[in-house]
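Protein modeling request. Please complete all fields; requests missing the sequence field cannot be processed.
Requester role: graduate student
Desired output: 3D structure, token encoding
Chains: 1
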Amino acid sequence: MRYRTVISVLVAAVLAFTSMSSLAAQGMGGGGSSSGDRTQQMDRDRTFDHDRMADRDRIQDQDRDQDRDRDHLNIQDPAKMKDQDIYGNEFMTNAERNQYRNELAKATSAEERNRYQAQHEKKMQERALQQGKDLVPPGQGPIYGSEYMTVQERNQYREQLRVLGSEQEREKFQAMHRDRINERANALGREVEEAE
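Delivered output (196 residues):
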């Protein structure tokens, strides 16, 4: 993945250099172009650079997301999985956690493993809802303003955050969440304490 990103950056740099050198050649009396033509060319180059940077960022996000997904799906040795790495482990008995590890180990394909994990996640979400407790996916911490949310809202927030595709989407989602929570707190005349 990094190899692809490096190549993309190098290609973009060569294109940018080529465009800058052609602009410089025009500016050194190479074509009698007017000031308006040079301005248009500079605008095109700026747009090109902006698009190039956006493409590079998009490729890096895709590579990072694919790596994260691969880490989630390609469990090398399920028998060595720690309890805290199992989605919803706090709602499972030791026997259920061991059975979960065994089922993942028995899966013969990524599709089979994905199907089993999806069923397991749905079951854990139902248990959390029935018990009125928070379901915290592995790797997630406290939620900003959780004291202004119901258990169901917290669980929905965590699940949506978990399935968002890119870091940019997650940051945007979290910013909107902070705004909503701040509005709730302001309506009550209170301040939101930062989660630790």
